[in-house]
Fold these 4 entries.
Entry 1:
Amino acid sequence: LPGVRVLLVEDNPELAYTAAGLLESLGCNVRQLNNADDALKVLRTDAAFFDIVLSDVVMGGTADGIDLAKRVKIDHPALPIVLMSGYSDSIDRAAALGVTVLTKPCSPDALLAAIR
């Protein structure tokens, strides 16, 4: 995974720190944001910088991870997105979008497989 540029969208500081640390230890470049609203702003101007978006589903702000995934699929269809959630209803809604969905908490191996 060296050089893979990840936009990590996670509002839980501990989970963001853990995921970013794991990805960075494997050579990924990680930019972490706390909500989908900020991610959408960044993607408007810098989408070409990222190789993948890794986002929580449930978080604060006016948009959630599902809103983010829908926007990415429309505005940047070549940009892969992986969603993570610990809530079964969110997992079902996310899976309906046709994106990779990880159940939180997920193992490091599951996270790495999804990024690959």
Entry 2:
Amino acid sequence: MSKSNTFEEDILKLIFNGVPIPNLANNASSAPATHLYLSLHTADPGESGAQSTSEVSYTGYARVPVQRTPAGWVVTGNSVSPTQPIEFGEMIAGTNGTAVYAAVGVAQTGTGKILYRGALTPAVNYNIGVVPRIRTTSTITED
């Protein structure tokens, strides 16, 4: 069975914007998450992976917090995109590489639960002096 288009949008709005689904799901009232954290990965972290699985590692890299509101994410139908380009820290030292996956999770550091993951098209190269960036045209689709 598949979810309806309306419910797909409701789920994305709940997760990315903190908007309750009437009579079904509320955003935490005492301590709701205020940010989601994007991570870059050199390979697919997999369905059982964590934010640290295959995560990019270079001096200057850190997960990027994005507000869990309409100011951080735009939900349109069954897809969601960042409202602003997401820039990771400039690579100061380390081994050059390519991020082929990105993930949205709940932890700023450490293992962290992945909520969504997907291939980056195009892949994001990182090397000394480069600021890796995910564009606003990147989308996550619920289907």
Entry 3:
Amino acid sequence: TPADRRWVIDPIDGTLNFSHHLPAFCVSVGLEENGRYVLGVVYDPVHDEWFYAARGHGAFLNGRRLRVSKTPLKNAFMATGFAYHIRHRFEPYNQSFRKMFHACAGVRRMGSAAIDLCYTAAGRFDGFWEMGLHDWDIAAAIVVVEEAGGKVTDFRGGRSGIAHGDMLAANPL
């Protein structure tokens, strides 16, 4: 029924990038059904890239099937983000950044969680983590990552922390 469905929309993910004319932003539309994200569409208008997935039907970029990378952590190219509204959590974030920085081959910050997640689904990044995200930042892209074979968890390997905005998405390795 419609009461069991909720559209989760971010008209501009990467708003600060957009407002400063930095070409890393997108439109993100997800569908939640019975508490689970089941459909996701992320459009990057700068590169004319449509990332989309439906639960059980795979993930795609402009019609081409997506698969996450198979790169182990020591060689991984990771993405992260740090939201301006969680400055009070700088120390825990800094600890996670320090650990990841030393554990992988490189880290980048794009400024759009939905793009970072879709790039993970496409194998451009091997993984992504961030604290303090909102459901509109990640709803659509979570479906894309999972349908591309990726794993999405909170920092303890479960799912409960995702509701609080702390998440990690990566290839299964």
Entry 4:
Amino acid sequence: MRRVAIVTDSAACIPKDLVEELNISVVPFRLIWSGASFRDGVDLSPTEFYQQLEESKELPTTSQPPISDFEALFQKLSSQVEAILCIHVPKEMSATINNARIAARRVGSIPIRVMDSRIAVSAQDFVVVAAALAAAQGKDLAEVEAAARALIPRVRLLATLDTLEYIRRSGRINNALALLGAIFQIKPIIQFEDGMGKLFAKVRTKERALQRMIEVVEEDIGSAPGH
């Protein structure tokens, strides 16, 4: 019997086979599109999302998982484990953590720790998996949380945008800047830091953006302790 259950949100983008293998519980975000609500990864797969994004004139909005989703999951898990560790997308990006904490106080039958991953998407995945691996070894709540926290400063997330179109449509940049970006093939590189995405660099062409990110990874590996 696992002593600690691991819970995260769908922003972590953990592959389904890994979720099942490591017994990770994923609480989905809501996607609001044309008046309809979809549970991320449940009612709408990533493939379906991107297909609809290309075809739709309307951009979707997101909503954090409701308190009731967390409460129902905590009630279910409380009869299976000794404690629960929740690892979520940063508080600067979403109210998910707050909802999880409210639900944890309402349940209260076992220790429930809610933790800010300080990162998102695939990097959040690494932090959650580190906790799940520790939980699979039968470690207690403090040890599982320590395993997750130890990985946070070691994870770095860089991303580049293939197109500025969706940022333009969201209103974050104007039409002129988007047009200039398309003409000159400007590819911004975004780094997630302190819970937020920040501009790391601007380069021309997707190939150069990818090469720059590879260089950063190589520099990080080269400066890592014990390398």
